[in-house]
Amino acid sequence: MSRITVENVTRRYGGAKAVDGVSLDIADGEFLVLLGPSGCGKSTLLRAIAGLLAPSEGRILVDGRDVTDIPARGRDLAMVFQSYALYPHLTVARNIGFPLRARRVRRADVRRRVAEVAEILDLSALLDRRPRELSGGQRQRVALGRALVRDPGAFLMDEPLSNLDAQLRTATRTEITELHRRLGRTFIYVTHDQVEAMTMATRVAVLNRGRLEQIGSPTEVYDQPASAFVAAFLGSPPMNLLDAELVTRDGQLHAVAPQVDVPLGIRVAAAGAPRDGGDPAAGRAIQLGIRPEHLLVTSATGGTGSTDSTDSGSAHETGPAVLRGTIRTVENLGSEEIAHCVIGATEVRVRARRPAGLTAGDAIALSARPEHTHLFDRDSGRRLVWQSDQPVSVPPARVPVTT
Amino acid sequence: MFVEVAPPTQLAPAPPPSAGAGTPGPSHARRSAGSLARMLGRGVIPYLYLAPALGMLVVWIYRPLVQTANYSFYSWNLSPDQPAIPQGWHNYHRLFTLPEAGNSVLRTVAMIALLLPFTIIIPIIVGLLTAEVRGRARTVYQALIFAPFLVAPVASAAVWQWMLTPGSGIVNRATGLKTNWLHERLPALLSITGIAGWQMLGFAVLVVSAGLASINGDYSEAASVDGASRWQSTRWLTLPLLSPTLVFLVLTTVLLAGTWTFPLIDTLTQGGPVSATTNIYYLLWQYGFKSFDAGFAAAAGVIFFFGFTLVAAFLVWLSDRLTFHDN
Asked: Is B214 on the interface with A (CB under 8 A)?
């Protein structure tokens, strides 16, 4: 039973901040994934929580108790290392029993607990082996067993699946999720793999350069990325980001760039109404984000002029094309294909069901529904949301920014 | 009607990588003639690279070894104009019946035992304590402790002789003892091993530090999260994982104790008093170059060569047993 609170934790290495003022409140029983690219500080943060690193600033609390100055062994946490850190000279049984042995639990009890845990993890037949005689997946389970054996308040996992092959990774992912469901303990899980984050987490904390970019459920993080970084980090391929400007036309906001004119579905006051004669958002430098799966192919035409319209059902309903360009290359993923298109100065990826009839070199026209567009400030990278109750006279600088 | 899709076969031509690919390669016959020479060349070249090192080994190690074995069956006084007289196994017989040889073996064992604290126990303690020291302080510390190793043994012997002088020597003045360190039997043995140990300590600490540094830091971190105290972590993880290094140090001490102590014995005690510091190496040297009994010295050399080979083989086997590869 552990609620873990991270209060404004900073960790410096020399002048550089590996973790920069991160605050998290992780509820008991939560599965929190710390997600980010390598070097974003996620492992450093986890090690600070584990007590292997002292934060330069800030506090760490477990169940309301300040443990910032308490060494790792006093924190009642268990950790699975990326390397597993199985003690190479000890058998599987002794590895799993180690935390109990360190706590001077009676031999008979250690044996009983180890047998129980081995049973759960299907390791009973391997108890007398040494780590070097195990496969990668088995080692991973032994590392889990060592964490499980003493029923800790929370489990910390540092990229535990990164050393497994793709198939085993998928299987173990399910096992860990199942384990979390059954134990009901707090899990803090570090990964750079968005699939792990999306599938396992109850909440995802996205880190970038030591700072927290966004924290939310996988759905929130994917559907409403709080910054351009999050938008570009999640999704495969990630969200398309195009530099654009805001323009008002017929009382509607549009994101406009060369070969791009996307209606945003935001109604502003009738033309001519504003006192200062301009519209609130016009000319604001933004980044327009559209996920590859939300771009609909309205037409794709070969250079020769032969018009074979590729209707994948919804293509007709979406109205006029809003992005126009050329297909540079098409990747076949089996169930889908991804077309890399050059639109203006940017490359835009489009995900389409196969067969979409897309050919490299063709001209392409794409459309997107307004609710599938995302706007980010071009300088700060933060998400922009429209406040409809303050329609006209909000100066551009004060367009509210979610955090 | 269904037609099975045939699996791809080797005969199926691969599509050319691009249009206008080149013509087929050179003719088969030409290629095989050249490849024989190339294969021969490939076989010889590695040995050519090895040849200088192998040559050195043969000239400086194996040839003397064979010569020694050969001399052990002769009686010869090392002078070029004297003939070597065949003796059969007589030298070996003398070796095993003379009490001198047996006693010097015992003294060698005693010296090794007295050196082990300097090459094992103190280095472990120093290594564990200094493992926490970081950065420049660590380098300075290691340099300080390594320095005696760089002093020539004869030079350090001279300094120690001066420090151990009865009456005016700093050792007796500091301790208030009246011991004549180099001219009493037990103190002489202790002095020789003490000075040798002092010289080797830095080397051993360096080896232990390297051994500690090679242990993956994840283990001690995992142990601390698992709730182990520092002492538990040291006893259950660090020392077992360090054991191959320690076996290496035991091996070095056993095999090289004689080499390390020889210059000190020769400078300070010349094997005395009453042979109290004569170990087998010094005895060998005395037979060969004091008594000019080359055959006898050679016989002793051969016996100890085999003796130490056995000890070394055992320790190497032990080291392999204790090494835990992890990946």
From this structure: no
